[in-house]
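[job 0417] fold request received: SMC domain protein
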Amino acid sequence: MLPLVLRFEGLYSYQEPQEIDFSSLIDAGLFGIFGKVGSGKSTILEAITFALYGNSDRLGSSKFTYNMMNLKSNKMLIDFEFLNHENKKYKIVREYRRNRNNFEIITQKNAQLYEFRSNDWYPLESLDVEPIIGLSSDNFRRTIIIPQGKFQEFIQLTPTQRTHMLKEIFSLQRFDLQDKVSAFNKNNLELLNKNTGRLSTFENVTETQIEELSSQLSTSIIQEEKYRTEHQNLQEVVEKLRQLKETLEEQQSKKKALEKLLIEEKGIRTLEKQTKQYEQLSQGFSHGFDEQNKLQKKVNDFLDEQQKEEKELLLLKDKINQTEKEMASLLPQFEALADKKIEEKDLEFILSILRDQAEIENLQLRSRKGIEMITEEEKKETSHRNLLATLQNKQKELEQKRENIEELYEIEKWYQKYEILEKQIAEQENKISKNKADILSTEKQFNPHLATQETLTRVIDEEFSKLEKSNETLREQIQNLTVRQQLSHYAMHLHEGEACPLCGSLQHPNLIDDDVSEQLQNLRNKLLLGQEKEKTLQKDRRNLENSFSEIKFRKEQLAKEELELEKLFSNQKNLIDTFVWKKFRPTQKNDFLAKKKQALEIENLLTEATKEIENERLLLDNTLKNIEKYKEGIQGFRDKENQAKARIELNSKNLQRLSVSDYAQQSQQEIRLTLDSLKSRNLEIEQKQIALQEEKNNLLPKVAKKEAMFNSIAKQLHLAKTELISIEKTLLERLSTTEFTTLEEVKRIVHSGLNVDENWAKIHQFELEKNALSEMVLELENKLKDQVFEEENYQTKITELASLAQKHKESNERMIALKTEKERLEKAFEEKKNLLKEQEKLERKAQNLSTLQNLFNRAGFVQYISGIYLQQLCDNANVRFHRMTRNQLSLQINENSDFEIIDYLNEGKSRSVKTLSGGQAFQVSLSLALALAESVQENVSTNKNFFFIDEGFGTQDSEAVNIVFETLLSLQKENRIVGIISHVDELKERIPITLSITKDEVKGSRIDLQ
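[job 0417] inference complete; emitting structure tokens
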């Protein structure tokens, strides 16, 4: 996994948005993140791991989002882009918001994983990055990004935990074949049991049994052939007798059928006569009857239509007469309509004159009111001008008293900086006092006599050396007493004349008979006590080293804090030198504040005066606008008055029949009612006259059309009646040529609906059947000539044939049964041979699977492979560990799959890794972590490997730091990318590119690339 870009804000000490572009850092190969303790260095790693996995190793699961979000922020955002081992680009975004109503409630607003394809980001359904990166959250922190305090976790894991970790990282579960082998074994066992069961059904299938069946089958075949031949010969005889019997029966049947047809022949002849008569009459009269019916219907239709048209014509003529009567009664009113129209126009002119006269009176009244309002507004104008002059004079006086506000703000900023420096100096002095007290307390606690580290170490080493010698002496004494005790045990069982099991002697003088058990137990107790003292001294020595390291670190920190204090004093002095305002003094801020307060009061008064001036100017402008508006209004009233007078003069000249004086006593509303009534009446007369004329005009063409239609129907009716008479005359002439006297008789026959085709078919069929039966009877009589059939002989032969058929059937069934049984046994014997071969194959497979099951049982093979991977890790780690320790120490795996140290300074003896010092433990952890990262890289086939170390390197001396740095530089040449988080300045100076973390008290932490 390679990081590309990390963006975040509102996380721990970071308030403002931060962005890290890893491209330049990755190109460098080795980079560092440096800053003071608590500045927010480790937050960068936690931002990456939290973005990927959504959990916090530092905070656990309880309210971790609340604790992660900066207390001054309402939003926490992490946006991380990275490449996986397949060189695919991904981005994951997590955003959280603080609840507006409850400060402690943090809700997730957005969480989305994206993949970069086709120059765009596409969201994925799942947030699970483990399949993408190939590492779980825990293993990611052990191999790629190792958080602070987790660096030595790999060597501290139990063998089981370490095996599980390697299994996840290197996908060793593919070697866990126990379930597959068990499934194969179970399946093979089922097949074996089935095969055994099937074999048990073939126990009685033998070659002897098959040979016996073959002999019986040969005898049965000969017997079946004999019966089959006899049956075929007798069957031919019976078949000839059967055919003769059928011929005789057929001749008798056909003869009876012929006699029946001869009886039916009279009815057929009658039907033939009726059919011929129907055909003749239909041919001569059918068409004439059809034409007669059609013409009669046509005459009836014309009569009905003629009556209908005559009735409608009479109705139309009545309507025309009624319309002409109404028009005659309306004629006098219609002729007077022109004069009424003139009166209508005169009334409209009179109404317009009266409206204009009323408008003139109203306009004159409004003009008088407008003049009064102009006078009032002119008085307001004078008042506003006087007040505006007074306010402008007041503004000038305040301007003369005004201070330079910008300068006051600059002075205030200076005082703020000065106060911040004073606060920082006080805090720094408190830190220094606290550090001095802590150093003194630590020295008194671990070194009350204030001796040097070398002196205390020498005293402990001398005491430890004495204990080692004393314990070695005790071991020799215990060894001697143990041998003596064993010899005493042998001596108790020796007898004169019996061979000694040690030397073979038959004589045993000076037998040892004393009991040393109590003495031996006392020595062992002393040895245990001495060993405990050794452990105590070793622990004291480690505590001593740690204490002096802590004191050294605190003193270094104290020196840095004192240097920082001097820097603050220098900044304070430089700030005082920048104080250039002679009106004030740097130490007398109260004078400045009083002056500032007075200046702000003047500013407020100036602001109020300016607002009042603007307000008065606005009021004056509004007053002037009102005066102008009123003057324009009065002029408009006068223009409208002149226009109204002109309209009155024009309308008076247009009056013809009426005059204004005629309506002087009526109101405009009364005149309007008179006008509307006159208009309505005139319109009603005009519309009624038009409607009556239109109705008459519409009726006249309809009457003419109806008269034409009536005449046309009368002509068509006359023609139809003539044709009908002609047809009836023709039919009577044809009737005279027949045997019938009336047309009704003929019509009844023609309309009887006789089916001619069916009758002729029936007659024809009768003739065919009669002729066919006659010929067949004659033919059968000739066929039976000179032949005799005896029923008794025929039945005897049938009985003999049935008996012979039964014998043949039984013989054939026996032959088929023997043949089927023989084939079954042969097939079963062949299947038995195949099952025996399969049985042997399955038994061999069962033995092999049993061997494999023992191999893979309880994940033994996985543990074996894990051990190989662990040994490879150990070998790869030793390459760097040897270089770091100058070949003094080596790492190995013991029989319990745990780590041990080989100490070449002590004859190559092994000891626990827990006996290493803090610096040595760091070296072996770094070597293992680098080896593990390399193995992960090889496992996922990546071009570049990324590795992040969050350790302070404070446990390393300068020489060890050089070795570590050389190791890190060698990684750069191996295409490895390593990031380091530390506060050690010596490393910062030697790393080519770094990120510097600074923490501001107000704005929070900030990241700078250096």
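[job 0417] notes: The mean pLDDT is 81. The longest helix spans residues 207-335.
[job 0417] exit 0
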